[in-house]
Automatic annotation (TrEMBL):
It catalyses: a neolactoside nLc4Cer(d18:1(4E)) + UDP-N-acetyl-alpha-D-glucosamine = a neolactoside IV(3)-beta-GlcNAc-nLc4Cer(d18:1(4E)) + UDP + H(+); a beta-D-Gal-(1->4)-beta-D-Glc-(1<->1)-Cer(d18:1(4E)) + UDP-N-acetyl-alpha-D-glucosamine = a beta-D-GlcNAc-(1->3)-beta-D-Gal-(1->4)-beta-D-Glc-(1<->1)-Cer(d18:1(4E)) + UDP + H(+). GO terms for cellular component: Golgi membrane. Its main location: Golgi. The keyword Protease does not apply. This is Hexosyltransferase. It comes from Sphaeramia orbicularis (orbiculate cardinalfish). The gene is b3gnt5a. Pathway: Protein modification; protein glycosylation. Keywords: Glycoprotein, Glycosyltransferase, Golgi apparatus, Membrane, Signal-anchor, Transferase, Transmembrane, Transmembrane helix. It is a single-pass type II membrane protein. Pfam families: Galactosyl_T. Its EC number is 2.4.1.-. It comes from the Eukaryota. GO terms for biological process: protein O-linked glycosylation; sphingolipid biosynthetic process. It is found in: Golgi apparatus membrane.
Amino acid sequence: MFMNFRRIHKCQCVQLLTTGLALCMLMVCWEEVDHHVVSHVRSYTYRYLINSYDFLNSSFAINSKHHPGSAGDSVTYPYLINHPGKCSVGVGGGSNALEQGDIFLLLFVKSSPENWERRQAIRDTWGNETYTRSHLQVNVRVVFVLGVHPDVKQRPKVQSALLQEDKDYGDLIQQDFLDTFHNLTAKLILQFHWAHQYCSQAHFVMSADDDVFVHISNLVKYLQQLQSSQKGVKDLWVGHVHRGAPPVRRKDSKYHVPYQLYPWPSYPDYTAGAGYVVSGDVAAKIYHATLAFNSSMYIDDVFMGICAKAMGVSPQENVYFSGEAKAPYHPCIYKHMITSHGHATDVRSLWLAATDPSVQEQSSGFMGNVYCTAVRVMLLCLPHYQSTYSCMAAFT
């Protein structure tokens, strides 16, 4: 009945100890393992194999159960800073589209009130409207969208600085809501409502975080290629796509979504909120969807996915839109880069490196393409915890 430990060999002792240690570690880390493995497998299976639910029901529709102005309603807040004529001002008064102010791209940068240095770095680099007009021959309008500082004590000082900043640059759009994580959906609604009301003629609309680097030359080239290959770009929603992603049920996570808010095991497909582009017709569809759905889903990119699914719009993957991580620093990456996430302090240096003429020279020709393909394979085809470019990007 009892185990005779004298008969157990040393190797068996090691095996028993190892197994016990592994079981202990599994018990301690089970919640994390379940979140990262089991939940994703279950979610993906439901989304693409069973697909027995449509992600939407009356819980997301605005109805009489919500009081006007409550957190669940898709409310619009009053503007504190606005520039209604941002897209209507012609540049040269000439006859061609560029001089008449034809807007190729309306680019929203989601910023926090205190992030002045990030906004200034963007103005000096990829968000410089003069650069895009003179070097790329297109009109791009860049505006920074934000709420009010959440700290009541700091708010007057920060607001005064914002008013002076806007007086100097004229590119801030601010509404009267607290600029917090749980109000990101309010910021998304602000973007599409502003685009509909003041810049509906824009061919494309982009949303990006203020720590995202946008290779504006590559982005414009990519969108122009789409235009030239199609008679008017329609139903475009492109970025880094999350497919079959499960809601986070852990209460200690800032991404926690309770069952009462979202009962399904999978989100609709959506693009990473760090940076994505939609065509003008999709921007209009999302605007109308925000009028029909309440904004109780505080994760903005998921709310975008809910609105898009309701309007029959599906996200499209572009391998050079980044997810949650920085793209590798290398000229062979810069040649195709569109967005890269996590650049709070190095935007200026990356801009100089990515736009250096030697980037194109190094990767040109047969040998240059072979060399860059090999480099991208080494940089992108290794497993990473965070999401940047996929291995498929190495072969484009």
